[in-house]
Amino acid sequence: AQSVAQPEDQVNVAEGNPLTVKCTYSVSGNPYLFWYVQYPNRGLQFLLKYITGDNLVKGSYGFEAEFNKSQTSFHLKKPSALVSDSALYFCAVRDVGNTPLVFGKGTRLSVIA
Amino acid sequence: NAGVMQNPRHLVRRRGQEARLRCSPMKGHSHVYWYRQLPEEGLKFMVYLQKENIIDESGMPKERFSAEFPKEGPSILRIQQVVRGDSAAYFCASSPTGGSTDTQYFGPGTRLTVL
User: Fold this and answer.
1) Measured CA angle at A93 (ends A20, A28), to 5 deg
2) A107 CB-near residues (< 8 Å, 6+ apart)
């Protein structure tokens, strides 16, 4: 069965600095990987996904993620953090064959001015 | 172009009552997924439905929970005889084809509180 790990519950970064939110996964076949962001009392907003092809995926709001098959990782990155990026970030994975989308526990990002 | 809609946004029930949560998918989407989020936890898959069919209910508790997606109208998640442990945020998502590479788009959620 597929699984996702987000090893950091909380990430703090100063505004203007680069940010990384880590994600590792486990699937039996080729992974389909997703990042979502959740603001307080809101639903999840889609940021980006990796299906196949280029290992560097660009998404919404300046975010990007790098797929690394050998390390089974899909870390979310942004070159310059904004205070408004402060939110809860979820990594999710789906295996082939219409299996359910499996989410990590989330990482709370706090960007300090 | 409206996104996924859920209502009510907040629902308070006493133990033993029924909770009924509604989800209208994005226009053109015929695949609906329900998830539950406990405080400080990620989302847990509950059930996947197409119009008039339950495709995967592997995450659904065996008792008291049911879901439907009729030919007309929204998808409904029904919780009978609610208990305090049912208090959570329930999110609905929709996608156009149901394929594994599809993006699922989420609604704002229904926050259920059981007193």
Assistant:
1) 120
2) A6, A8, A9, A10, A11, A21, A22, A88, A89, A90
**Which distant-in-sequence residues (6+ apart) come within 8 Å of B36 by Cβ?**
B43, B44, B46, B88, B89, B90, B91
* Model pLDDT for residues A55-95, shown as the tens digit of each residue: 999 999 999 999 999 999 999 999 999 999 999 999 999 98
CB–CB contact A32 B101 (8 Å): yes
A28 token code pair: 């039996």
Contact criterion met (CB < 8 Å) for B59 and A100 = yes
Contact B51, B30 (CB under 8 A): yes
Share of chain B above pLDDT 90, in %: 83
**Beta bridge partner(s), residue B21:** B77
Which chain B residues contact residue A46 at CB under 8 A? 103-106
- Tens-place pLDDT, residues B70-104: 999 999 999 999 999 999 999 999 998 888 888 99
